[in-house]
Amino acid sequence: MTRLAARALADREAAYASEVRRLLDAALELIRTGARPRVADIVAAAGLSNDAFYRHFPSKDALIAALIEDGAERLVSYVDHRMGKADTPEGAIRCWVRGVLSQAADATATTTRAVLWNAGVSQPDIDAGSPLPSGRLAVLLHRPLAELGSADPEFDAALIAHATVGRLTDYLWRRVEPAAADVDRVTAFCLRSVTPPAV
Question: Could you tell me the residue range of the domain that residue 2 belongs to?
Answer without folding.
Answer: 1-57
